[in-house]
Amino acid sequence: MGKSVEAKDLNIYYGSFLAVEGVNMTIKPKTVTALIGPSGCGKSTFLRSINRMHENIPGARVEGRLELDGQDLYGANVDPVGVRRQIGMVFQRPNPFPTMSIYDNVIAGMKLNNKKASKSELDDTVERSLRGANLWNEVKDRLEKPGSGLSGGQQQRLCIARAIAVRPDVLLMDEPCSALDPISTLAIEDLINELKNDYTIVIVTHNMQQAARVSDFTGFFNIEGTGKPGKLVELDETKTIFSQPKQKATEDYVSGRFG
Amino acid sequence: MTGTGLEAPASTTPAVLRRKGSLPRWAPLGILAATAVVMAGVAAATGSGVGLWAFLTAVVYAVATYTTSRVVEGARKAADRLVTVIVTGAFVLAMVPLVSVLWTVIAQGWERFDVTFFTNSMRGIVGEGGGALHAIQGTLIITGLAAAMSIPVGVLTAIYLVEYGSNSKLSRAITFFVDVMTGIPSIVAGLFAYALFTLLLGPGVRFGFVGAVALTVLMIPIVVRSTEEMLKIVPNELREAAFALGVPKWRTILKVVIPTTAGGIATGITLAIARVIGETAPLLVTVGLATGVNLNPFDSRMATLPVFSYYSYATPGVPRDPFLDRAWTAALVLMLIVMILNVVARLISRYFSPKTR
Ligand SMILES: Nc1ncnc2c1ncn2[C@@H]1O[C@H](COP(=O)(O)OP(=O)(O)OP(=O)(O)O)[C@@H](O)[C@H]1O
Ligand SMILES: [Mg+2]
């Protein structure tokens, strides 16, 4: 578990619109990489191209290379479904399955794929994942209740539990805390710190303190103007980005002098 | 003016916030009763009927409520009350024919709502007695066949349109033709099925399956439309959540999208069945009528409740009354079947609908 991700000259399109251009990025295994940048610069687009969710949008496509531990993810014989089994994702808004109980939500990845597993195996997975997502103590007495009956923050942690239950190599998070209160946010940040022992994590955030707190590396995306493609301006160790970035644009952005 | 104990003293409340007087709780009913009584007097004096009385009461009541409220409570409250009266009036108006039909059918159909009606056919019956067992069975068989054909086709079409079509030319064409099909008069559907089987099997063929095909033509567009609407309201986030877990698209549709909205789909299907189960014209053309039980939809004519009811009423024998009674009871049974279907749909949708507690 915990593989490296490498993007080489990645161009990402929506139809004929080039949304993200020329990304070269290496993400080391078992690290947390934060992606920051102004709204509309293509952070989500880049993130969704890593697990090939991007191509679900009609007309959307990708050029260039994206590798998981050296394996080309966009190769001709690569199944996007297989890619998504190795690269999990947590969305900005919590989206538990409304027809499923908390228990079933956690093992949704196995259940929906008809994986055969014994009851005790499933129980173990549920407990391990919920503990991993810091949710076990809050829900252990009501695992049969629907997942949509939880609070927003609990639902988001349930979604994280669901994502780690299938033991992916990489975990992508798109603004996972933007709908949460400070306490839930802290809980999730703690969780990210623990998760990086096992997983490679890429997190998009608008909160610079959060990027500084949780990440080892930070990538800054920027866009020159509307209609222009977003670009990766700089990727470096988080403390370098926040103290002495090489690019002027990065410095302006992290110090709040943007635009 | 009292209540929460939080209001500031009246003198310091700014004009915008200040509440005007309010009518007591019983005011609407009181005004209605008074209007009704006064109008009853007017109607009696002028010798006009119940219809005119109800109409006058409604109009005068609306005016009276508005003026009273306007004087006591101010313009905004008055408008609110006026609209409430109009909305309630529309509701009552809509209920009048419904209740009237229900009442008539129950009252007239009650006479023969007995065990014989459900256990006997019309074989060898010329006057009293007899029943509609054969017609009940025929209706269930033909509608069942129609449902068995149109539900898979309709649901799968809707799935194609919503999940795979993504606004392609083909999907837009399908949507267009489905809309056109919705408007087909039922007799045309009947003639279509009749013509089709005449071409296939020679002239004059009439059997249950032909009727089922006619009903299928009517049912498919309804099923497609309702299922499509239901699938569209499943949030895209749920599909993405499943995709992100490495679930293939077909499994996502089967195990996430459809269960999430199963209740709605089931309701739509039940309403579609309820819509076609009472069809008379196409069955008249394609299936005809029989006096005895025929359980084979692929051979010879078959009785159905609507056609049975129609023939008993339109061409009664001598004496007339037993035929008319049976016609009404057949209508009552048909209505009960539709009602049971609706209850079933509710139960299904309650069972499937996502729970939050
Ligand atoms: N489904 C789509 N179809 C077409 N264009 C899109 C689509 N989604 C995003 N875009 C465009 O791609 C560009 C990048 O969008 P993206 O959502 O990746 O930005 P972002 O950096 O995640 O912004 P934010 O911080 O606001 O979430 C924007 O110009 C946006 O308008
Ligand atoms: Mg985004």
Tell me the total number of β-strands of chain B: 0
What is the CATH topology assignment of the largest domain in chain B? MetI-like fold
From the alpha-carbon coordinates, what is the Rg of chain A to the nearest angstrom? 18 Å
Strands of the largest sheet of chain A, in order across it?
5-4-1-2-10-9-3-8-7-6
State the domain count of chain B.
Answer: 2
Assign the CATH architecture of one domain in chain A: 3-Layer(aba) Sandwich
Ions, cofactors and other ligands present here are: adenosine-5'-triphosphate, magnesium ion
Biggest interface goes to: A-B, 33 and 25 residues
- Please trace the helix and strand order of chain A, writing H or E for each element: EEEHEEHEHHHHHEHEHEEHH
**Strand/helix succession of chain B:** HHHHHHHHHHHHH
Structural class of chain B: mainly alpha
Unreliable segments of 5+ consecutive residues of chain A: none
Indicate the CATH class of the largest domain in chain B: Mainly Alpha
Shape of chain B: flat
